[in-house]
Amino acid sequence: MTTMESLIGLVNRIQRACTALGDYGGGDNTFSSLWEALPSVAVVGGQSSGKSSVLESIVGRDFLPRGSGIVTRRPLVLQLHKTDEGSQEYAEFLHLPKRRFTDFGAVRHEIQEETDRITGKTKQISPVPIHLSIYSPNVVNLTLIDLPGLTKVAVEGQPESIVEDIETMVRSYVDKPNCIILAISPANQDIATSDAIKLSREVDPSGERTFGVITKLDLMDKGTNALDVLEGRSYRLQHPWVGIVNRSQADINKNVDMIVARRKEREYFATSPDYGHLASKMGSEYLAKLLSQHLESVIRARIPSITSLINKSIDELESEMDHLGRPIALDAGAQLYSVLEVCRAFERIFKEHLDGGRPGGDRIYGVFDNQLPAALRKLPFDRHLSLQNVKRVVSEADGYQPHLIAPEQGYRRLIEGALNYFRGPAEASVDAVHFVLKELVRKSMEETQELKRFPTLRADIAAAANEALERFRDEGKKTVVRLVDMESSYLTVEFFRKLPQEVENKGGNPGGNPQATAAVDRYGEGHFRRIGSNVSSYIGMVSDTLKNVIPKAVVYCQVREAKQSLLSRFYTQLGKKEGKQLSQMLDEDPTLMERRQQCAKRLELYKAARDEIDSVSWTR
Ligand SMILES: Nc1nc2c(ncn2[C@@H]2O[C@H](COP(=O)(O)OP(=O)(O)OP(=O)(O)O)[C@@H](O)[C@H]2O)c(=O)[nH]1
């Protein structure tokens, strides 16, 4: 069943939770404001327009501070709760939970004290609201926000800016489309000059959310009345105007009881020749009921949008919390677990780069497919196997005794000399892949959200990963150089066996001495050219082999190792760390910690608000 109590009470509870969390609209809040989404009634009026009197009359109690100058210097959120007939009236402040005030003089005193607590005695104003709940059989369920009276001049001890500051604060409330404006104007002043109406006209030109109230009807000059205003002829609003007669200063001085004052007000309208026909729609009691009903209907209409704001905010906050990560545990076991979790997240991303889930791994294939073959092609074999060099190497190898059939030593020296050239491209491939891996480590660190929280751990992991990559590079270099050395240590005999034998008489002189021709030819240019060409084909064969096996060695020693054991040593060291060292690693950025706390609190608020709404059933 929907009751006014349930809906207005619901908003009251959410409002209190908002204030407890510092969400009262305005300010530099980076979170969406639930407060601003809640419908509320703000009381607006110039100084001495009768604001306090109207509020007290609605409550039926004397409880607001009085005095000269600006008395209301912080918004007062006044939440009225109707209780059963005969039950005792009491008041409670949000800042003093569990303390019940039954003496309303003490309530007044506490409002003064609490105002000064934030603003100091400097007469400054502050937007931080004071929450006061009043439980009474003489009230209707209603929430009103009393704001500082609009003023035109600063008084002694107040800064010049106060006039503007008050207007800015009042505006920050009435600007909100969810704010119902209770605009108070005194009847003994021209409505055209009313501060409240001036402001309302600006922020609510259609008059949809403004309730006009005329006070001090009893103080109008004899022979004049406020019918033009009350009947909507002077200034039209969507809701009816309400006339009020509050206690005069003399009544206040005489301590006239509020309940008596309400009765006198009723009598005033009932017997008034001017307003008698409007009597049932005048007075503070009628105003309270009107506002309560209106507030309830506005809340009912807004519940779906409030619910969707809450759900949206919960989703946003939860995803931000996921992003920020869980708070860090205090015991060493849980800390170790956290460190390992972060490391695993990093390793997963790193592997994705290598395996193709993320970009970058393809650059390793680029090394094998382009850089290595190009480097092999560029090796200076032409120079090494030039006729001149072949001749020189072979002759030097022969020594004083030129070779008889084939220059075995010469061949070996030429081949060994050529094979040495392969070390360069082999080592360069290892380096190139090393740099790709290093870059992928850097990228993966950046992409690991969890690491953003922990700068120290991030540096530790980066150092461990780079140290591991260096080790893999050393191993890779040793292996590829060994592959080249293996080529020099044993030549492929098959290759030489398959070489066509030199034809003794080929190109010789058929008429001459066949033996003499062969001897000349054996040490002639054709012979050395053939040697050069044979060595070149052998080297070509070796080059093809290395082109295939160097990538295997590089992947085996560097890529595979990086995938399998990039952080293995780090893990071993981690196991030996003490709790203190672990917590140093998890030394989190303080701004993140702060943000997480705020998010968690906010999330709690929204979830509580959602539960509140869920627990209230209402008819649509
Ligand atoms: N006779 C009569 N006096 C009223 C009425 N309303 C307010 N007053 C008197 O007008 C004076 C100002 O009223 P307040 O209720 O304090 O007005 P306020 O707008 O709260 O004033 P500030 O808090 O100073 O801005 C008091 O002396 C009230 O007794 C009224 O309807 N009739």
TrEMBL record:
Limits of the Dynamin-type G domain: 35-304
Assembly, per entry: Forms homodimer and may homooligomerize and heterooligomerize to form the phragmoplastin complex. Binds to PHIP1.
Transmembrane feature ranges: none
Keywords recorded for this protein, A-Z: Cell cycle, Cell division, Cytoplasm, Cytoskeleton, GTP-binding, Hydrolase, Microtubule, Motor protein, Nucleotide-binding
Subcellular location(s) of the protein: Cytoplasm, Cytoskeleton, Phragmoplast
GO (cellular component) term, any one: phragmoplast
Family classification: Belongs to the TRAFAC class dynamin-like GTPase superfamily. Dynamin/Fzo/YdjA family.
Record's signal peptide: none
UniProt-recorded Gene Ontology molecular function terms: GTP binding; GTPase activity; microtubule binding
UniProt protein name: Dynamin-related protein 1E
GO biological process, one term: cell division
Catalysed reactions, as listed in the record: GTP + H2O = GDP + phosphate + H(+)
Main location: cytoplasm
Protein origin, superkingdom: Eukaryota
Entry annotated with the keyword ATP-binding: no
UniProt domain GED: residue ranges: 528-620
